[in-house]
Amino acid sequence: MMRINIPRSTKLAAGSFICATLAFLNQPTPMAKAAGDQIVIGLVTKTEVNPYFVKLRQAATAEAEKQGAKLIARFGKFDGDNEGQVAAVEDLISAGVKGILITPNNSTGMLGIIKKARDKGVLVIALDTATDPANAVDATLATDNFEAGVLQGQYARKALGDKQAKLAMLDGTPGGTVDTQRHDGFLKGFGIAEGDPAIVGKQNTHGAQDEGQTAMENLLTAHPDINVVYTINEPAAEGAYAAIKARGKLKDIVLTSIDGGRLGVQYVQQGKIAATVMQFPKIMASKGVDYVVEYVKSGQKPSGFINTGASLITDKPFSGLESKDTKWGLENCWGLNTLAAGKDRLLAVIGRP
Amino acid sequence: MTMDVTTKVALPPKGTVVLEARGITKRYGQVTALDHAELELRAGEVLAVVGDNGAGKSTLIKVLCGAVVPDEGEVLLDGKPVHFRSPLDARKLGIETVYQDLAVAPALDIATNLFLGRELRRKGPLGGWFRLLDKNRMRREAQHEMDQLKFHLPAIDSAVEKLSGGQRQGVAVARAAIFARRLVIMDEPTAALGVRESGQVLNLIRTIRDRGLPVILISHDMPHVFEVADRIQIMRLGRRAAVTTPQKHTMSQVVAIMTGAARGDEPVEANGG
Amino acid sequence: MSTSSLAASKRNAIGLGRLITMPTFGPLIVLIVFCAIFSLATKTFFATGNLSLVVQQSVIVGTLAIGQTMIILTAGIDLANGGIAVLGTILAGRLVAEQQNPVLSLLFALFICTSFGLTAGLLVSRLMLPPFIVTLGLLGIVTAITRLTAQGGAFPVTDDLLSWPGNAFAVGDTSITYGMIVMFILYVLVWYLLTQTAWGRHVYAIGNNREAARLVGIPVQARLLSVYTFAGLLYGIGAWLALGRIPNADPNALQNANLDSITAVVIGGTSLFGGRGSLWGTLIGTLIVSVLRNGLTLTGIDPLWQDLVTGILVISAVALDQISRRKQR
Ligand SMILES: Nc1ncnc2c1ncn2[C@@H]1O[C@H](COP(=O)(O)OP(=O)(O)OP(=O)(O)O)[C@@H](O)[C@H]1O
Ligand SMILES: [Mg+2]
Q1: Could you give the angle at the alpha carbon of A57 between the alpha carbons of A53 and A51, nearest 5°?
Q2: Average pLDDT in the B44-52 region?
Q3: CB contact under 8 A, C212 and B97
Q4: Cβ neighbourhood burial of A4 (10 Å; 0-12, 13-18, 19+)
Q5: Is A179 in the same domain as A166?
Q6: Distance separating alpha carbons of residues B73 and A258, to the nearest angstrom
Q7: What's the rounded mean pLDDT across residues B102-116?
Q8: CB-based contact C217 B133, cutoff 8 Å
Q9: What's the CA gap between B161 and B144, in Å, rounded?
């Protein structure tokens, strides 16, 4: 009477073995190549659900290929996944990378591991989001969000003409770094200071379409004479558009936004938004890769804040204000054609104080 | 913790009343499960309790083992009233029960099940401070008891779920036998068992009685009842309809009283049918 | 052959058979297979430095998974352990920043985490509420308290005591953090409680057949209460280990830790229906996930494969459990 119960455990083992093998067979593994003198570069993004970071990754991979380097990409599982990002950097150091490009989830959460990496001679470049303090990394490649906000404000001013401004501001999250920079930049470009009576109302939308709509509805009820609107990103702008349309005020209000995802450019093309300001994750990625390759070849490190620029996108340009049309915008924008992406993107952009 | 069967408390002489239930009433909303039910268990006997479905057998023995608190009536152990609030109270007084649904943990092994809730710890600081179980001793004593009861089981450390129905029943009965000091109550121990396995369980019941422990046995199976019972209590509609013996009445007479086809008031026993 | 000698001969004939039937055997094989594959595929995987990393990366989820294992063994589930641990980090981080009293801050965080375990235990044992609902509700509550306490900010922790679990010492060329040691001690302690004491047997019995446990006189309510309360304390310790690993209390951190802890328990071979499983299986389950993540990075394979393989492992483990349970009926 043998009573051996192998099946349960062994089947599990066999099953997983098959999975593991599958994982390997299906992947055109560059292992053999990596073994040589090829430069290996690590990329750690915030999440993989967000088209902005998908674009960043694709651009980095393409640039690495062009340079004959190999890119290993990792990402957090959700916005705020410090543990996931720290583990990623640790693994990348183990894998022997020469440089790490990272969009830190939290401006202070990565400091320890970044120091460890740099102590080991790894070049660390922050992409998109700066660390606090900024000199914790070798260099930061990002959009100057203040500058971008200025562009948005300048456009809004011109579009309004000589009308007396009644400005509504749909912000993201109170205290967010990027949020504050864009907000302040807009005011500068618009030519007014915080507290100016032209600002009739401010609301936090967390960059979400539904919250943008609610906020705009309430603001319009309180101030039916609003004639210019700042939004923190395009989903919030889309929500505001719905509220404005429902009120029959499309002709009276200049709606502007910032971010520059595909969706946003399409809104501009459809005339929902007058203009948006586009940033360039592609440039952050490709420049980042270039810097690492350069560092390996010549030992030269980049340093400080490197602005990757921003462009005004509109089909109603004004003279004296440089802009690109939506056709150019669609060719150069980041992001997939999905609605769901908006909120994640905002969460990533706004970051936390 | 007494494990040695021979060191049970001095048993009362055969025939004296060990356990008595008087005027037990239990209602569940509109349903009266027990309506002034009586029961008398004497030393050294197997008392079978029979009755139709819903006659109140299970409820009555749940009162006796503390699983159910009655609305009215009293339970006397050795002539003294006792008030059980939980099965633990009854067990502390030496009353062990084999429940209809067995009350075993299938994933745990036989020895663990036998000692569940009454685990043995190592002597000295290991057991005292570190609460270390004495697994070897439990296994040994479990094996010993199974041998004593002449009940055949696979290895004592195999999981109960790997046993046949009869063997599982054996584990539950053995647990009661090992720990009982006054009496054992069994609810349908042969239900769902084959002929051979039923025979093994009936043997166990006899073994327990021969050690001097009285047994209350609930069963629907008349041949089994007539095979092992010394006396038979017939329940009907929550009451005791009659008490008899296998010698005084035939199976069909007992069934007739059970179903109400024949009258079975208390005098039945006295009349001798 | 008499029963006793039959049993004796069986017990002697264990060896390989016993090993194979151990519930941790399957997960162990999976772990070994993955390690073998990654060792062959990369030069760096088997380096002691890298193995130490894998364990360091397992410390938080590994500790939360201890509490999760105990609760799942009682046929419960805990959906709040990640949330409780995050609250612990925020409380300790903010308190130490404001009061400069690390010992008190840590004790307070441990106390609050334990209290939430106690609350769950009271609701589950006294009011007989389903653990799924209780912990789901608690998750909402602790998350709200976390946000209210953090007020949108994160708290960088510079204190030595709070970040102590992250400190390392070297054994040979392997770096060992105190967090790793704390986790291993907790595993040994809870393993002992679960397998070598009556308390542990009762935990298994309650999950296996709660009514039977009650009928044989196990104080079911008290045992459940102790399990949930102890789990709460473990989550508090998990919070401490998290601060050691990343000295930054962030209200947005550890969002997946809860599900990861369930994943580890399930991959480790513990039944979600309660009453079966082993704590070492959970540790192995935790390591499997970490090894996969680390190994895929070293080989340069897209880490999305980690989620895919982990998903397959979870489903296989649950399916096997279900099949083996059905066979026993
Ligand atoms: N917990 C309960 N709640 C409500 N009604 C109950 C409960 N327990 C028993 N009853 C009712 O009490 C009556 C007696 O039930 P009991 O289980 O004692 O009968 P029984 O003689 O054991 O029947 P069977 O032979 O089917 O086991 C039945 O009508 C039953 O429906
Ligand atoms: Mg019954």
Answers
A1: 30
A2: 94
A3: no
A4: exposed
A5: yes
A6: 82
A7: 90
A8: no
A9: 21
Q: Coil, helix or strand for C301?
A: coil
> Above pLDDT 70, what percent of chain B?
92
Is the pLDDT at C46 greater than 50? The verdict is yes
Q: From start to end of B126-211, where are the E strands?
A: 183-187
Domain count, chain A: 2
- In angstroms, the CA C21 to CA C19 distance is 6
Q: Is B55 in the pocket of ligand 1 (CB under 6 A)?
A: yes
- The CA distance from C195 to B231, in Å, is 45
Whether residue C4 lies inside any domain: the answer is no
Q: Please tell me if the CB atom of residue B253 comes closer than 6 angstroms to any atom of ligand 1.
A: no
Residue A63 tokens, joined:
């640039």
The mean pLDDT of chain B is 87
Q: Which of B216, B158, B174, B189 is nearest to B40 (CA)?
A: B216
The pLDDT assigned to C259 comes to: 93
This prediction's pTM:
0.80
**pLDDT recorded at residue B128:** 85
Residue B118 touches chain C, beta carbons under 8 Å: yes
The interface residues of chain A toward chain C in range 14-43, judged by CB-CB distance below 8 A, are 15-17, 19-20, 23-24, 27, 29-31, 34-35, 40
Asked if the structure places residue A69 within a domain, the reply is: yes
> Which two structure tokens, joined as six digits, stand for A200?
């009739």
Confidence (pLDDT) at A271: 93
Task: Describe the crossing of helices C279-299 and C178-196 by its angle, rounded to 10 degrees.
Answer: 150
Ligand 1 atom showing the smallest separation from residue B52 Cα: 25
Residue of B98, B102, B116 to mutate, testing the C interface (most C Cβ within 10 Å of its Cβ): B116
| Encoded tokens for B66 | 């503390």
Alpha carbons A1 and C214: distance in angstroms, whole number: 34
Mean pLDDT by 10 residues, chain A (353 residues): 42 50 46 62 86 85 93 87 92 94 87 94 93 92 95 96 94 80 96 94 84 88 92 91 91 94 90 94 92 95 94 94 93 61 42 32
Where residue C26 falls among pLDDT bands split at 50, 70, 90? confident
Check whether residue A247 and residue A289 sit in a common domain.
no
Give the pLDDT band of residue C21 (cuts 50, 70, 90). low
Split at pLDDT 50, 70, 90, the class of C42 is: confident
**Residues A44, A62: Cα–Cα separation, whole Å:** 16
Residue that finishes a domain, picked among A279, A296, A317: A279
Instruction: Please tell me if residue B132 touches chain C, with a CB cutoff of 8 Å.
Output: yes
CATH number at residue A226: 3.40.50.2300
Range of the domain at A83: 38-143+280-309+336-350
Q: Which domain holds residue C185?
A: 22-323
Q: How far is CA A98 from CA A58, C101, C142, in A?
A: 19, 41, 41
Do A149 and A271 lie in one domain? The reply is yes
Residue B235 host element (H or E): strand B231-236
Please indicate, yes or no, whether residues A66 and A190 belong to a single structural domain of this protein. no
- Residue whose token pair is 């709200």: C144
- Residue A318 inside a domain? The answer is no
Phi, psi of A171 (to 5 degrees): -85, 180
User: And the tokens for A248?
Assistant: 């029959």
Asked whether the beta carbons of residue B106 and residue C328 sit closer than 8 angstroms, the reply is yes
Read off the pLDDT band of C162 (50, 70, 90). Answer: very high
CATH of the domain at C44: 1.10.3470
Band the pLDDT of B109: cuts 50, 70, 90: very high
Q: Nearest-CA distance from C262 to chain B in Å?
A: 21
- Crossing angle for the helix pair C48-73 and C178-196, to the nearest 10 degrees: 40
Is residue A298 located within the same domain as residue A263? no
Residue C170 domain flag: yes
